[in-house]
Structures are given as structure tokens and as C-alpha cells.
Amino acid sequence: MNTPQTITVKAGEVELEGLLTVPKSATGLVLFVHGSGSSRFSTRNQYVAGVMNQAGLATLLFDLLTSEENQIDVTTREYRFDIELLSQRTIATIDWLHEQPQLQKLSIGLFGASTGAAAALNAAKARPDEVASVVSRGGRPDLAIPAIPDVLAPTLLIVGSLDTEVLQLNQLAKQAMQTRCDIAIIDGATHLFEEAGTLEAAAFHAKQWFIQYLLK
Length: 216
Hints:
Layout: E1 5-11, E2 14-21, E3 28-33, H1 43-54, E4 58-62, H2 67-76, H3 83-99, E5 107-113, H4 116-126, E6 131-137, E7 155-160, H5 164-176, E8 181-186, H6 198-214
């Protein structure tokens, strides 16, 4: 059983809390870039992380916001759509990973949800040599449209069939991608993949994508 380790990521002038799990002989790491109002304690992301760990992939779930920022955001929601800030925090976390002796040899994949998907794509553009693949679940890649044509990492967009507006936005984003980009539509799923079996299906698609591009 892989036990998550509580870590602190130094991201510029702030410190971000995270949960790091590294299975024995892992060669890839999935960095979770969560979405609106979420955190490292998201039960959905923790479930998906467990699926990745069972496949031999390391995972890092981290808070994009400090505790003070999160308290403000709960009321004002001013941070969760600050894509520039979320992107900077994601890039800083990738740089932190690269500085850790026990982690720097792991191929990095980004798993973005909701607005976190835009931050993940911006980070993939900014760190093309470090980011090997990207997966978006119920994401808003359209919020990173200026960066999308320059993303080199193969990208999978997972969307619920009933999340019609977001599905259309993902299809627009796919058209702008110059690298490999697939869309996996999960039948019967709405935005949060709360319907029976839908989160499991999304996790399966994400796992297969990361296995293809991260495991050596």
C-alpha cells in the first residue's frame, strides 16, 4: 500500500501544501492541477490518484492556493478563475519537482480539472521539456486558447456527454491543438462525473493515456 506523504512546495513567494505518493519503481509522476474551489483533499482527485498509483505512477495533489487565499476565494471566487496565477503556481511546482533528487528523473504528466486544465496547458507550453503529457477532466482548455497551438505534450480531453457546453468548448480547443489531441466522451456523465461509473471510466481513460506517455 502506498502511503501519501505530506509535503510543502515552495512556489515563488508562497508555500503550497501537497500529498505525494511514489510507488516503488515509478518512472512517471502525475501532477494534479485541480479546478474551481477544490483542494488536495478532493475525493474525486484522490480516487483518480489511487488508480494512477496502482498502475505504478507517482502522484502529487497540491493546493494551488494558500489557506488565506482559499478563505478569500470561498467568498469572492476571485482566485479560481485567475488563470495566470494558477498557471504560475503550476509552473513553479513543476520546477520544484525538477529540483527534488528523488523525483527529478520522473516523467511528468499534468491532470487538470475545470479551470485547472487551462493552467495545465499553459504550464505545458512554458515547460515543454518537462511535461510529457496532459489530461483534462471536465476542463476548460478554452481558457488557454492563446497557448494551445504551442503545446507539444500529447493531450487527452475527457468530457461528460451531458456536459454539453463544456463539450463544445473542448471541441474548439481540440481544433486549435497542433500536437496529438484526443477527446474521450464519457456517456451519461455531467460536469462533476457524479453519475454511477462515470468517474471510474474517466480515471481509466486518464490512466491509459499516462501509461502510454509516462511509463518507460
